[in-house]
Structure formats: C-alpha cells, structure tokens
Write a structure and sequence with these properties.
Blueprint (H helix, E strand, L loop, with lengths): L4 H20 L8 E5 L5 H6 L7 E4 L2 H7 L9 E4 L8 H7 L2 E5 L2 H11 L4 E6 L13 H12 L4 E7 L8 H21 L6 E3 L6 H6 L4 E4 L1 H4 L7
Parallel strand pairs: 1-2, 1-8, 2-3, 3-4, 4-5, 5-6, 6-7
Length: 232
Amino acid sequence: MSQYADIVARAEHVLERCRSAARRSGRAEEAVTLVAVAKTHPLDRAQAVHAAGVRDIGENRVQEAEEKWGGPEREQVVLHLVGRLQRNKARSALELFDVIHSCDSLRLAERLSRLVGEGSLSVLLEVNVSGEPQKAGFGPEALRREFESLAALPALRLQGLMTVAPATCSPEAARPHFTALRHLGEELREQYPALGGTLSMGMTDDFEVAIEEGATLVRVGRAIYGERSLPG
C-alpha cells in the first residue's frame, strides 16, 4: 500500500480530527466511527484506509458496490450504504450491506422488512431536517407520525437517524441541523426506547461540527481519497 501513502496519511489525519472533536464534546474518542466513503474510487484505493485502522467503508450506489466488493475483500470491511436506495435495489442491498443509512420512507422500510423475512437488518432512518425539497428523507413531523409503524416492522433494527446537512459556506451554518437531528432522536427514544442512539451526520466539510453536536458516525470521502475518480 506504499503507493497509497497519501490516502493513509489523510485518513489518519481525519481520524485525529474526529478524536479531537469528540474530546471537545466531552465524549470518548471511540464514541465516533469514521465511515470512509469510497464512491467512484476503485477497490485498491478503498482498501488503503485499512492501513490507518479504518474498517468502515461507505458506498453510494448498490451496483457500484456489487462490482467493487464481490470478492473475498468484502469480509474485511463493515459496508455502509450511504446513498439513496431505490426499492428495486432493496434485495441486492440487504444481501451486500451491513448497515443502510438511507431508509427514507415507510414504504421502503416495509419492503426491506418483507425481504429480510426471518433475519434482521440494521437501518438508519434518513431525516430531511432542513426541509429541502430536492432531498429524500422523512420530514421530522412525518417521522413522528409514522414511527410507530416503523418500530413495528419485525425484521428491522432501527439503530438511529441520519441526515445530510445543506451545503453551506461555513461548517457552523450546518450546526443547527445537526442539533435538530440529535433532539429529534432524543424525543423519539423517550417514547420508543427501541430506537438506537446512532446519529449519522457530517461529511468532509462539516464532520467536526457534527461530532460536537453528537454524531456517532461521520461519512467522509473527499478529505480521505481526494477528488472523485469518475463523474457522478
């Protein structure tokens, strides 16, 4: 992996920034997991982060992940689907991914539960905290209304919530959205203790602020791998 020393160095730097942000928020360093998002980057570059101690890998698209992680390398990682999941890709996704971050509707959740059957699947509920019309996800009020139905689905482990903050010129501008997701999770857990405490929030431009506001998973790609290898 010496040819990827730059990736290893950047991953180590991001890990240290995660640890520092966790300490600033009064939490243990190990309370935050770095998910290295490898969208469009080839397998060897995605694997390079292992040398920095990063085992959690994020992918945005099911088809790309199938092509990339179809071999024995799959057993070396915890694989997260962090991009939008279309219902017609649900079967493939549950066969490949350990955690799905983008369960964004009751209809999708019901399909996943049916497909899993007697097993179980770890999911995060995607919340469109900012209310941006172009983004997927439950609105906070919709999630409150539908949570009882979501919690009743037998095959899903609702590990927590996920959001994508609006693109801003300053990380601080994203802070209110992260705070809102944390508060929503706390509110829902009071009524539904089965909801886990995972908060997937924060990316390259704002992950330190997200950690300060309670993130337990941060999804970082560009700060580790550099710019994407391919468009899309």
